[in-house]
Queue: 2 jobs
Job 1
Amino acid sequence: MNQQKRSIIPDRAWQWLVLLASGSFLVLFFVPQAGGLASMGSLLWDALKSFPGFVADIIDYYKTVPGEQLWPSMLVGAVFGALSTAVVYLSGNTFNLARFTERTTLAVVFVGAFAGGIGTQILLYPAQHCTYASDIDGAQFRLGLLVTALSALILLAPLWALVRRRKSPHQTNTHLPGQYRSYTLPYLFLVPTLVFLGVFLYYPAIQITLVSLRRKIFPLPQEQFACLENYVSLTKDTVYRNSFSTTLFITFFVVLFSLSISLAIAVLASQNIKGASMYRTFLVWPYAISPVVTGVIFLSLFREGGVGLLNYGLDKTLGISPHWLTEKNLAPWVIVAAAVWNLLGFNILFYIAGLQNIPADLLEAASLDGAGRIRRFWRITFPLLSPFTFFLLITNITYSFYGIYGVVDTLTPEGGPRFGPGGESGATNVLIFKLYKDAFDTGAPAGLGSAQAVILFLMVATLTIVQFRFIERRVIYEG
Amino acid sequence: MGNQRTQYGIHIGLILVCLVVAFPALYALQVSTLTLEEAFAVPPKLFPPSTDFFNNIRGLFEGQNFDRLIVNTLTVSMVVVITKTAFAMLAGLAFVYFNFPGKWVLFFVVLLTLLMPTELILVPLSNLIADLEWVKDSPQLALTMPFMASAVGVFLFRQHFSNIPRELSEAAQLDGASPLQFLFSVLLPMSWNVIGAHAVIQFIAMWHQYAWPVFLGLSIEDQMIQVGVRQSVIVGTQTDFGLLMAAGVLASIPPLIFFGLLQKQFMSGFALTRDK
């Protein structure tokens, strides 16, 4: 259909039409919003103007901070930085302790110590070095050490990347053919992206980290610095722990089922048969259905009594009618089923795209060598699909952590059937659901909610980095 | 003979799979035609469709502002798709066709936002929007501005641009074309598939927005469609499942159309990005 369109309208004209239409659409949208845009402009201007004050605050703080809190934190960071950088530097291909005495090694270790020491201040300045105070309790002090290491990592990670890159000779940062020479234009092109990311992602992310260090009840303005109290109390909170395990449980099964089922379906739909493209079209469209609508459909399917289709069928055939959404062992499975169905279209789409890319001659050669269908799949198809599996793994985990909110909120608006000693835990009270409840309900502890958001971010970040390292290694190993 | 038998086997398997995958949606379509009484009938009315579909749709338009919600969501999603594409293409141009100090740091700054979904920072973000007084004055800015830049788009275009032969930009430079001229007359015509793929992802992501508009506390006529669907769950004491499913069906039609129109671009857009 698109081919026909292109033959009727000349390519160029069609392009200008699209550009003109989108341009005028934007103008029509933004012109009536001039007032709102102006207030954003003045906010940005105020932020710029407050920058000298911000720097002055930092200087003032470091003039008054007690030395017995500042120096130990720097020392911890420096030791951590020196040791870890040494390990990273020496373990290139093989771990070689003999090189430890070389002068470059010493220089690298020194830089590592320096970066680690300075890096600790990135997170410890906003935390006011409170975990190094003499009257702090043990739990907060230990958590403080973790924060110190994490903070040092912010500077150490780029340093490690640099150290590793220096050692491999074929990656240099020189001018490539076809690159423009300009030192102002690239920054200009990046300004829109960076400004929007800065204002609407980085700034709120910093805010939420700061709030997580405070004691605060949601609508009230009073707040108080609380060091890492919120984090420590979360680790002791049984409701939070239950939410944590519920999330891991749901995520594990959602990812397992959605990936395996969609891979099986995609393989079936990629067989060389007549009308395969028609089947593919039929299989990928659930992608366009939202989590909320999915929740609504499953709500109707899993209704209790004879009115719900599923229970009607089960009652007629097996004579059972489970309480799907009010039984604590069943409700999470309904969520899993809904989420898996919601993800199927997207996953099938990407797996089909991946399967189309696998060279047919490779499979043919293997088949001539006498490899059976199943062997060919596990030895050739599956490894070649690994970039797609990796991408889908990340998107599906992100969905199960955050996107699932629409499904949970529609199916179990109260967080699911109650359990636990006081009945405070909900069987589908996943972390993102609890986070919103804690953050927005009147009288909710806002500091605790923010601490939960920070932990959730760290969890997803860790998972992603671990997967990335793992996949990267495997791909290199195979390549 | 045996080969033909496996062919039939695959066909039967695929038809079954399609039916199972489509079943919840077909069921929703069926329920959306039922009246309130029929939706609570025992046994559940599975076939034939009843007569109440247009009645339910009319109920949504008249009683629940669905006309406003659809127009609003469509506007918001299109604005985000267009600006995101423009910003991401500019950023991709900077990352691929320039070499400048701080390139890797800035790229990492963009990369890190992949892990910072808006869902996590709703509280401070809504405070920021409150400071800007957008909720009352310009609700559409509150719904669009936080989503105008994203790492996904920057990655997609960076990847796509770096697969384009270097000779093209060398030739453009010899002809004296500025970077923007190069973008418009060389890169843009080669990027429509990627633009289409990116547009599908971003449009559907925007159309599915739920948590953010809920917590913004907008008045109902400024809301987005998913909030409208969720709010049809409780009408009085008993949920009118016919009406609710009609809402679900109605809310799924625009993304389906958008996806259907750009499906070919979508598939080939990703085909381009994967070979390195």
Job 2
Amino acid sequence: MIHWLRLQRSLADFTLAALGRRRGKNTALVLTYALVVFVLASAMFFAAALRHETQLVLADAPELTVQKLVLGRQAQIEAEVIDQIAAIRGISGAKGRLWGYYYDRISGANYTFMVPTDPDLVPPAGSVIIGEGIARSRDLEWSGAPLFLSRHVGDLQKFEVVRSFEGDSALMTSDLVLMNDADFRSFFNVEPGLFTDVVATIRNPKEVGTIVEKASHAMPDLRFVTRDDILRTYQKVFDWREGLLAALAAAGLLAFVIFAAEKASGLSAEEAREVGILKAVGWDTRDVIAMKLWEGGLVSLGAFLLGTTLAYLHVFAFGGGIFAPVLKGWSVIYPDFALAPHVDALQLTTLALLTVVPYVAATLVPIWRAASADPDAIMR
Amino acid sequence: MRPTTPVFAALALLAVLLTAELAHARFAGASARERLAQEAALVAALGLSDPALFTEARYTRHPSLADGMAAFQDNPMGFDHFPSGSVMPAPRPPISGALGFSAEEVTQ
């Protein structure tokens, strides 16, 4: 065993010395390789962390949201419909919600206005609770700064800010403005008895499918969105974004494959001569292949380790600065949040296999052909 | 010094770093759980359905509650104005469906 280890170490020494003779080219190869791994691993870490976070946080999203559709668009829903929904067997409660969008011409951003259903979060008349993105976009740096909102030219409404959500919940609350019912109705001119949509709670979560099926049959102009639909939407959104980024990286990957294939499989005349000499001085075919395995292994392992280590730092220590805009979106006030680190072990293993194995295989095949040939023939 | 010594040392260092990062993901994940639990409680209290990632349009701010025809939101054949629309997955067309004048006919 010790003899075998010594042999391998000597082979590795020999390989590194050989790689050192073409130092510039091989360093460029490892760095490009590491860069490709870095791009793929960053996209993977970022999407996995974002997916993990939304899945955890949205686990408590409304069980069932009911919208009224008119001409294929969401319309306001009447209070009577809420009673009809609450009367459906299996539904334990239904509440009308008031929420909507507001375009702020000063910051050029859209805010989401909402009347909280939880009485603890309802602000007093003439005041609001705002998300951190709004304070940021409106420069409300000092505490107690009021929020001025204008619906049209010549209109200005003042609201006291009683509380701001901290950055901790920015992912969900960045653009929120919470108001009480009366302020909301007068600000947006919503008539009493009308609501934006309805949230319903369900007695037995297993029955959601059946309840939705029956309810949509009885009330065909309503649309029912379940919590599972919401979670599925986000799974798909992040899968798509990760895929999009991987597709962009694919161009780089392809360029790298050409580079690596040229380097690894197109055995240069010099390398072929080297193999011929090694065989002529008494090296076994097995030794030549082992040497080449070391080369492929060291290059790809080094690149994989370097790429993933830097990708982790990039995403979780430096906020994923390079890709964040693509994966997060381009909103004027996108949330300022730090992702909870999360690594998907299966994805990491797949990445390792997809990057290390093909390169080692690509180096091995041509050298095997050269090593098994007659030294005299390959040196000529 | 043999050529393998610095290279093996560098690889070992990178491997240790990667292991430390994976440990960090596990450990920091545990401390972040409290923050996530608070966030989840807020989501439950407010009944939020979507993260505030892209606020420019109705169908990008609340994709899970958006109308079915998001690509042509504003007028028929009106293309998407917003960059984040391009990084939203296209909805899948219905896989199965049947037409009929009554419920019995459709479920046959």
